[in-house]
Amino acid sequence: MKRFGRHSPSSNPDLGASVGARRRGARIFAHVAVATLGVGALTDSVLADEAHTQHSFCWRGRPKPECHLFMLTETTGGITWPNAAVYLRTDTGVMGNLNRTSAVGGSLSVLASLAPDREIARLGLNGRYRYWLGHDLALDASPGVFIGYQEDPGYSVHLGALLGDWVGLDAGAEASFDANPSWYGGLKLGAYPGLATGVVLTGLVVLAAVIATATLSD
Asked: What is the DSSP-derived secondary structure letter of residue 3?
């Protein structure tokens, strides 16, 4: 009498091959699923980190994609020639990154220059272009116009190099429209140090002006 039951894979070659193929397919599918989930998790992590580091507005200038808009707060001090004098200039404004290398904006500047035989005070309106050489290194160009105290309106052109938007160099020329330019060269502070230094030095200049005016009136 024959027994009826399941055939083992070894007793049926075709059935054994089919079972083996299904098992191999299941293992391949499992590996693909695990790899897909791993890549998806890694992609989500990278996108989350990138989104975390992106800001619509920054208080210290950095290129895209880290910053879209950033505050401009600079204080510059140096000397002028051929008319020897010491100058202090503060710039406050906003810039926006067009892409990873270029930013444009504008600033309002206040310049005070002191020489033994003369004093200069100017209020300027300036355009600003910045070229990012890297994440922490940039070149600036700032053309503008100004109105002065007891002098005719004029123009200014300043070029700068910045490191991390913290510290940099300044070189430029300023003059009334009908006069020969004076050349400017100095050091600048940006971001929070520039803002703090500008506030303190501007306050000292205003205080000195008040004291001088009071002394002359007496």
From this structure: P
Cα gap 111→78, rounded to integer Å: 11
**Nearest CA to 97 among 62, 73, 52, 127?**
62
Which helix (H) or strand (E) segment is 95 a member of? strand 85-97
Chain segment 63-72, per-residue pLDDT in tens: 999 999 999 9
CB atoms within 10 A of CB 76: 27
Backbone dihedral region of 26: left (phi > 0), alpha (psi from -120 to 50 degrees) or beta?
alpha
Per-residue pLDDT tens for 47-59? 444 444 688 999 9
Give the pTM: 0.70
The CB density around residue 195, as the number of other CB atoms within 10 Å, is: 19
CA torsion angle 201 204 210 211 (round to 10): -150
Distances (CA, A) of 182 to 48, 126, 140, 146, 212: 51, 18, 20, 14, 26
Distance CA 169, CA 31 (A): 57
Q: How far apart, in whole angstroms, are the C-alpha atoms of residue 149 and residue 136?
A: 37
b/e string for 12-39 if b means 16 or more Cβ within 10 A? eeeeeeeeeeeeeeeeeeeeeeeeeeee
